[in-house]
Automatic annotation (TrEMBL):
Record's keyword terms, sorted: Lyase
Keyword Lyase belongs to the record: yes
Domain spans labelled Amidohydrolase-related: 94-282
SUPFAM superfamilies: Metallo-dependent hydrolases
Species lineage: Bacteria, Bacillati, Bacillota, Bacilli, Bacillales
Pfam families according to UniProt: Amidohydro_2
KW Zinc (keyword) present: no
Protein name, as recorded: Amidohydrolase family protein
Length: 291
């Protein structure tokens, strides 16, 4: 079965380099990612754009918009990109220049959507500072992907990354589709309700486990851990709006695919691993023709 991984990273972020070496034991490079894609029948990935100007500064308040996949000189042909947004630069005299650069990038065919780093940046997703970004998303028919749940940095603030904040946003912006990353973990039941209630909200299952095989096996063999996510999936009962993503390099793709296969009932695997990506990210169809 072909797989689309809708949530990976390929940016020169210090914490990603360290995680790849110390925890997940993956080759954090475009070549390393392509090798994992080939071994696991992943035919396309979507990278979440982010950057840091100073080593270890993620989330970097000085990063210019739009943030991209800067680990390599250009986006590899097997990837698309969700451009990252730094809201701290969407205010004041520089705001229009930042928005102009964002819009110019959105016109590129390899751009699949927009990424907000809620929690890392201290703004609620329904804050007016993001309104011009949502207008661009509607103009170009692109989804907005939102980090929710725990942050991979102690500098984040969890009140901004709670999935319930997406409920208010989804009501305000019914013309835009949104994706809750990481199923809002640890608030997975709240995220499940937001997905179930709002027709324009999806969720991905990325980033729920970080590490190598011993780490994965320990958690996959812990019923309470697995049931934490299964309960949310059963409650939401919208497998047509759940998408597979790994959050690579935080975990090897083969282990993460095995983990999600255990979570999701087999009859929904084709939707979650492949078909649902076409519904949320319209530009995928321009890169891949569904059989």
């Amino acid at each position: 079965m072909p797989i689309i991984d809708i949530h990976i990273h390929l940016s020169d972020i210090d914490s990603f380099h360290r995680t790849a070496i110390d925890l997940s034991k993956v080759d954090y490079s475009a070549a390393g990612l392509k090798a994992e894609f080939d071994r696991n029948d992943v035919i396309l990935g979507i990278g979440m754009g982010v950057s840091e100007q100073t080593k270890g500064a993620f989330p970097d308040s000085s990063s210019p918009n739009p943030m991209g996949l800067d680990l390599e000189e250009q986006v590899p042909s097997f990837l698309m990109e969700c451009v990252g947004i730094n809201p701290n630069r969407l205010d004041g005299k520089q705001a229009q220049d930042e928005l102009d650069r964002i819009e110019a990038r959105l016109q590129s065919p390899e751009v699949a959507g927009i990424k907000l780093y809620a929690g890392y940046y201290h703004h609620y997703v329904y804050d007016k500072i993001y309104t011009p970004v949502y207008e661009l998303a509607a103009k170009y028919n692109l989804p907005v992907v939102i980090h929710t749940g725990d942050t991979y940095s102690m500098n984040g603030l969890l009140k901004y990354s709670h999935p319930l904040t997406v409920d208010e946003l989804a009501l305000q912006q019914r013309g835009v589709n949104f994706m809750i990353c990481h199923l809002g973990d640890p608030w997975v039941m709240d995220a499940a309700e937001v997905v179930a209630k709002n027709p324009n909200v999806y969720a991905d299952l990325s980033g729920l486990v970080v590490g190598d095989r011993p780490h994965f096996e320990r958690f996959m063999n812990e019923p309470l851990f697995m049931d934490h996510f299964r309960r949310a999936l059963v409650y939401s009962d919208h497998y047509e709006k759940m998408l597979f993503g790994t959050d690579w390099p935080l975990a090897p793709i083969d282990l993460y695919a095995e983990f999600v296969r255990r979570l999701v009932p087999e009859q929904h695997h084709e939707k979650v691993f492949y078909e649902n990506a076409f519904s949320l990210f319209p530009r995928i169809s321009e890169r891949i023709t569904k059989p």
